[in-house]
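stage 2 :: seqdesign
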């Protein structure tokens, strides 16, 4: 029944997650990643959030072959104190030629995985800690993750959503409003070498904010309040992003 419903939605011109990416996400779901705090972020989350909001995004905003999985090493639901999920073992079980991509420093564990003969890349991410910049081991996932600034705001209090694909599954993604505001913040934090990514950040943020203002303005207001609590530098980045991207909050 679940698969039939997903197929009907996809038949209505919703772009599904490409099969190679979907297989990875389904396996992560089956091994319990989303039960122990894992959250899909990046463009794959944006694509999943479209149907969740009842909208079909433009295809140009969905071009990606990356699976970005975020986890917080310090915040886990009290209801799942003893659960773990072995991410490397999940990849091995797929038997798709997934391998860890070495870091520049061989002393540091890998935080990214590639797939032989494929462009697909899987990145593990975690909120930056004040006391470290190196990859951080998330014990519940048995994997190291790259530390990123601003990520904690996006993955705080994630929601359940359905990944639409040939084999659909339930995943965790950021709240749509937090996803949009986070994209605005990081668009201003990127340096000039990532100008294309910054434009994509603003494109996605604008699309999502337009939808939220129409259908769920309260969600946007709550996300704005939470962002303001992070400090004036966050608000300044959002204001610059509004001017640069022609976004009205």
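stage 2 :: out
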């Amino acid at each position: 029944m679940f698969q039939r419903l997903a197929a009907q939605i996809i038949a209505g011109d919703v772009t599904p997650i490409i099969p190679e990416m979907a297989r990875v996400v389904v396996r992560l779901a089956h091994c319990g990643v989303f039960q122990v705090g894992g959250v899909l972020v990046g463009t794959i989350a944006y694509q999943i959030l479209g149907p969740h909001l009842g909208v079909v995004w433009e295809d140009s905003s969905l071009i990606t072959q990356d699976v970005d999985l975020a986890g917080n090493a310090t915040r886990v639901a009290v209801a799942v104190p003893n659960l773990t999920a072995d991410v490397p073992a999940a990849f091995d079980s797929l038997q798709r030629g997934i391998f860890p991509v070495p870091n520049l420093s061989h002393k540091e564990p890998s935080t990214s995985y590639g797939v032989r003969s494929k462009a697909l890349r899987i990145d593990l991410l975690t909120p930056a800690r004040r006391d470290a910049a190196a990859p951080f081991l998330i014990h519940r996932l048995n994997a190291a993750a790259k530390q990123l600034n601003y990520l904690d705001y996006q993955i705080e209090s994630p929601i359940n959503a359905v990944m639409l694909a040939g084999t659909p599954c339930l995943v965790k993604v950021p709240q749509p409003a937090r996803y949009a505001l986070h994209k605005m913040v990081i668009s201003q934090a990127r340096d000039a070498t990532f100008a294309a990514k910054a434009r994509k950040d603003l494109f996605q943020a604008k699309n999502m904010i337009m939808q939220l203002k129409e259908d769920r303005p309260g969600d946007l207001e709550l996300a704005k309040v939470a962002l303001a609590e992070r400090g004036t530098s966050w608000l300044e980045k959002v204001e610059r992003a509004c001017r640069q991207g022609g976004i009205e909050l």
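stage 3 :: structure notes
- The chain is about 45% helix and 15% strand.
- The longest strand covers residues 121-127.
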